[in-house]
Design goal:
Number of strands of chain A: 0
Chains: A mainly alpha (about 260), B alpha/beta (about 250), C mainly alpha (about 280)
Strand content of chain B: 25-35%
Largest sheet of chain B: 6 strands, mixed
Structural class of chain A: mainly alpha
Number of domains of chain A: 1
Strand content of chain A: under 5%
Oligomer: heterotrimer
Bound molecules: adenosine-5'-triphosphate, magnesium ion
Chain lengths: ~260, ~250, ~280
Amino acid sequence: MRALSLIFGAASFAAPLLGLLVLWVVVVHAFDVNPRVFPGPGAVGHAALESLRDGTLAAHVGASLARVALGTALAVLVAVPLGVAMGVSQAVSDFLTPLFRFFSVLAGIAWIPIATLWFGYGFGAIVFVIFNAVFFIVAYNTLLGVSTIPKSLRHAAASLGAGRWATLTEVLLPGALPNIVTGIRTGLGFAWRGLIAAEMIATNVGLGYMLFVARDFYRTEVIVFGMIVIGLLWLLIDRLFLAPLERATIERWGLVRAA
Amino acid sequence: MKSLAIRNLSKTYFDAYAAAHVTAVRDVSLEVKEGEFVAIVGPSGCGKTTILNMIAGFIPPSAGEILVDGRAVKGPGPDRGVVFQSHALFPWKTVLENVAFGPKMRGLPRPEREAIAREYIALAGLSHAADRYPNELSGGMQQRVGVARALANHPDVLLMDEPFASVDAQTRMTLQEELTRIWQERRPTILFITHDVGEAVFLADRVVVLSKGRVLKEIDIDLPRPRRWDALIEDDRFKTLSGQVLQLVRSA
Amino acid sequence: MREAADIASPPAASAASPLLAAWSWYVRLTARWPAVRSLVPFVPVVALWWIVAEAGVFPRAFFPSPPDVSRTFVSLIEKGILPEYLEDSVVRLLVGTAAGMAIGIPLGLLVGLSSRAYKALWPIVLFFQAIGDIAWLPILLIWFGFGLTTMTFVIVYTVMFPVIFNTVLGVRSVPTDLRRAALSLGAGRFALLTEVMLPGALPNIMTGLRNGLGYGWRALIAAEMIVGTSGIGFLMFDARRAGSVVEIVLGMIVLGILWYIVDSWILAPIERATGQRWGLTTR
Ligand SMILES: Nc1ncnc2c1ncn2[C@@H]1O[C@H](COP(=O)(O)OP(=O)(O)OP(=O)(O)O)[C@@H](O)[C@H]1O
Ligand SMILES: [Mg+2]
């Protein structure tokens, strides 16, 4: 019963995408589209197989994912403790909020030029851009989360005998968690885009690079394949990492309604 | 204002989780005459809201028919005004705009519909708050606007689903007295739903006791009008009637 | 505002210490001019930046000082480059945003209101949203070349999806009772849309716009860097090629201020004027 409805759900989700695929085939054939403008599905499939066989796809995907994972992990590890510490005092958080808003506005792509100057083209610059994209937004959201926890909750914890540490772990951190998750989600969205942009500009391996080099040779089938890979990877990150994170915190606690 | 007739009304829901059919309303027949005030009481889950939603046209009946002024009901329409428990005022409209909504839907020009709205806002005693947003009103005021909004559309019958259930006890008494006053002034046909026995007896000409989706009994309330709580609270007839209804509800 | 009166009560504060007196003065000042509160925190940051730059911890070419940046700022304004680039960027953003909303809102309403449209379109929307704007740049460059069309396409694409998502969410979050109330007051389909669904979804649409702009202007910067012929992103990337850090830093500051203005002078007031007065959003 359960499995059946799951399969049915997947099928009804896939149907419109299949429709799109059919439309693609039909349009490319009917209008005899120049492959330098837009490739047919066959050419894209061929490009996919080839990049799988010679290992370039694995190299590009591996490089991109490693950068995102490292930059994001570092940023979250630094930003959350910092945000909680800053949010504990009202005066401190009032003072720092504009600063962090300013820098979270700059997060990501705007750092590409200076990052490539400081670190040179390559791994360092790109991880720096991703770190920036995630760090300021997560720190700002944590700060916001901690400072908007109702006073009554802190008072309740204190009158139930919670000390400083217990208040931190039992009230402040869980209270700010929904904001932290929102921050990670937004930050990762910016980071992912920043990654693709940075890879187009500043490296010689990675998905963005793969697309941009293909452009030089009018290899539209490689470009379209790369776009599909980027889309699928983001869907995977979203479904396997972000959505469960959000379900486990925000939605479960009824802080927002499910989409 | 016109009459309302319900004949052999039934409603069966399909509960997807339990994979079973649930009969919420079974073969209910009921008549509300023109200008009459009828209250339905019953314990939680006995099907009161389901009946009202079918009359309002929000959900289709499984069987039976609903006639307003002799015409069969098909979907929601302005001939049946609804006052909601959740007040359901449009948060982006002021009190005036909320009450003027029905006349606006009838296509009346602005001056005319605002005149009508102001009349009913005054009737509800809220002239001073006409330009406020619902968010800026107390719970009791919100319910008054809800009543004014429904009446300003001149419906044939007024359907009210526990409209006073979420206001405090003092305000509730005031609202009940005001509702009887307005009813006496304008004589709308009202079907009022509540789980509060005192409220039903205080307001209605006739109380219908509902149990597990069926009509258990109808009791005529022959208390004199105008009714006021400070008088009725000591009144023997009121006590007897309330006791009678309460017995029925508790046995339900 | 908070406790301003208590803290500012003169005798206790001024008697205690000059530090407290200064704090009390600051609190009173910011209570009168709230804008000060978001400016003052930048003073120590700029001071620190200045000190580090003057101390020569990093080579000057890599780490310019505030006076360097302000000199460049003045000269770029005098040459007319900065105003021109700024205008280019802002116009692109505005046009792209307007188009993105013009497509996103109706599409969101359609998908949110019709379950058939939802079934047919939602997977496709999700898929294209996942591809993301910047990944389109290479193929757009092949199609349209280095120019305005490419940049506009990217911004429209970026703004559109958050608007669609939030419009759908907004339509869904309109309480059933409000819809029923409108219907039983005689509203038809069209009135239901304009009087109930659209205003009910408005706070969410605003959130969508805000998110969309956040993504959109990053996409713009990226597009200007990669495609660029003008604009702030181009200014920064051109400076990168010439190795001029001053102009890069200047570009970042201009971007930050620009967004600050858009966000707190345009978006936030609209949000306050709608959602908060209606009690639909908190905070
Ligand atoms: N949409 C639905 N699907 C399945 N069952 C439903 C649905 N709506 C109501 N029911 C069931 O129908 C019965 C009657 O519900 P209804 O809401 O009419 O009760 P009520 O008398 O208004 O109760 P209350 O006083 O608590 O408001 C209940 O058993 C309820 O569980
Ligand atoms: Mg009910």
